[in-house]
Amino acid sequence: MYPSTAQGENLFVALARDGGTHAVKYLYDNGRDDLELINGAFLVAAQNGSTGAIDFLLETGSISSEVFDEAFVAAGGSVLRAKTVSFLYEKKRATSEAINKVFASTHCFAVRKLLYENEVIPTEAIIAAFQRATLYGIGHFFRLTKDKLDTVRLLCELGCIPAGVIGKAYSDAATRHLTQIMELLRDHPKLSREVRESAFANAASAGYLDLLRTMYDVNLITPDALLTAFLTTRISETKAIVETLAAFMCKKEHVPKAIRAEAFVAAAKKGLKTVLEILNEAEDGDWPLGLLKRALAVATVKNVKNYIRKLVCNQIFSGRAVFGCGQAIERLDVDMLVS
Question: Superkingdom of the source (predicted)?
Answer without folding.
Answer: Eukaryota
